[in-house]
Design goal:
Strand order of the largest sheet: 3-2-1-4-5-6-7
Distance between the termini: 9 Å
Largest sheet: 7 strands, parallel
Structural class: alpha/beta
Number of helices: 19
Shape: globular
Length: about 400
């Protein structure tokens, strides 16, 4: 059995890419299937992340032409014509040429639609487009419609689907009538903790990295690691800062970091128009070690997002022993909710009041200690490998019926 693992995208995708990368590393450590795995990458810059692991890679380049060509296959009339004259999508030909028996998609990918002749496994992280279709990232350029088509295909064609928690599994069943036995729950395993552990041996000076940002030393630093999507709700934090400013409360300083996903200029202009430059700093897209330095040296993490519950900063905050303020009622899992400081994102006054916990050191120590223990239990690398081993064992057994 030959297994292709598809790693799409680049580091600028943010959390999705690094979640996929961490999954790839763990998959490559499953001894039973190690020799049967080959990684398919879509961008050359990804190779640098795989060098140290001695992972076999094949490049399937996705350029602009490829994107438009793929869109032609979405049109039934053209697709039927292509089938009649035996024109296959380049990815279908790529799979056949490399003799893969199973493809594992580490995130939802349109390339799964061109696996008609073989089986595949796919991760689905959330169904936020369905629950929050009002945001531009979901309702522009037919993003909603395209994702619906993709999810419907994956859910009814995939050999197995991996969902990050029971809540997402239930939504896949409720919204798309997914076969319950095909949906496997496997929690996210964040990348930054393993990188941090590895770098401890290199004795990287994270305090020095943090100091280079020139952040105020006499204020509580509140860190929001998120790309600039509208649904990430940076606007809420601007409202919070305006309230603090009106009260002459200069004790808190906010740090944003992330790539522009369409909302960057809007937030940047809000900061300027409200004269908040001395209250908040935008660091744009920064490297992994810089992000770790911010986690280690900030006083708290905040995430007032509309979309979830699959957000990596929750588990990163738990690992780095930082309290995290998170959107109230977004997570249905009561056990996870107990480890968060919930904030009402319809009421910025609520967060202003809850910020005062940053001065209660004993309470913070108690919370973060429990959060770290929860992280170790929930983000188990062994459970991840066990889940995938069961999937691959089952497929290996089945494929021997005909091959």
């Amino acid at each position: 059995m030959k297994i292709g693992i598809f790693l799409g995208g680049t580091p600028k995708m943010g959390g999705g890419f690094f979640q996929s990368l961490k999954s790839l590393f763990l998959l490559s450590e499953i001894e039973k299937f190690k020799s049967k795995i080959e990684v398919i990458i879509s961008h050359k810059e990804t190779i640098n992340y795989l060098k140290e692991k001695n992972i076999n890679t094949k490049l399937f380049s996705q350029n602009t032409f490829m994107r438009y060509f793929s869109e032609l296959f979405e049109i039934d009339l053209i697709k039927n014509l292509f089938d009649k004259i035996k024109i296959r999508h380049p990815f279908t030909r790529f799979i056949k040429k490399n003799k893969y028996d199973l493809i594992i998609f580490l995130g939802p990918s349109i390339m799964s639609k061109f696996c008609a002749e073989i089986s595949f496994v796919s991760n689905i992280w959330d169904v936020d487009h369905k629950k929050n279709s009002q945001f531009p990232e979901h309702n522009s350029n037919f993003n909603f419609e395209n994702k619906e088509k993709l999810y419907n295909y994956i859910i009814h064609k995939a050999f197995k689907i991996l969902a990050p928690n029971q809540s997402i599994k239930k939504e896949l069943i409720d919204f798309y009538k997914a076969n319950e036995s095909r949906v496997i729950v496997q929690n996210f395993i964040p990348m930054l903790p393993s990188l941090h552990k590895k770098n401890l041996e290199k004795k990287i000076n994270y305090k020095e990295l943090f100091d280079k940002f020139g952040l105020p030393k006499n204020k509580k630093i509140i860190f929001y690691p998120a790309q600039f999507w509208a649904h990430k709700n940076h606007k809420y934090l601007i409202d919070v800062l305006n309230i603090l400013k009106s009260r002459n409360n200069n004790n808190f300083f906010f740090v944003f970091c992330g790539d522009n996903k369409g909302n960057f200029n809007y937030i940047k202009n809000l900061i300027k128009d409200n004269k908040l430059e001395t209250h908040v700093k935008i660091l744009n897209f920064i490297n992994d070690n810089d992000v770790i330095s911010l986690y280690l040296n900030s006083n708290a993490i905040v995430m007032p997002t509309f979309c979830g519950p699959t957000n990596l900063p929750i588990f990163e905050a738990f690992y780095f022993k930082k309290i995290i303020f998170y959107t109230k009622d977004l997570i249905k899992d009561n056990e996870l909710n107990d480890h968060l400081i919930n904030i009402d994102i319809s009421n910025p006054e609520d967060f202003c009041e809850k910020l005062e916990i940053c001065y209660e050191e004993d309470k913070i120590e108690n919370i973060t200690k429990k959060n770290y223990e929860f992280y170790k239990k929930t983000c188990s690398e062994d459970s991840f490998k066990t889940a995938y081993t069961k999937i691959l064992d089952e497929f290996d057994h089945l494929i021997k019926r005909w091959k």
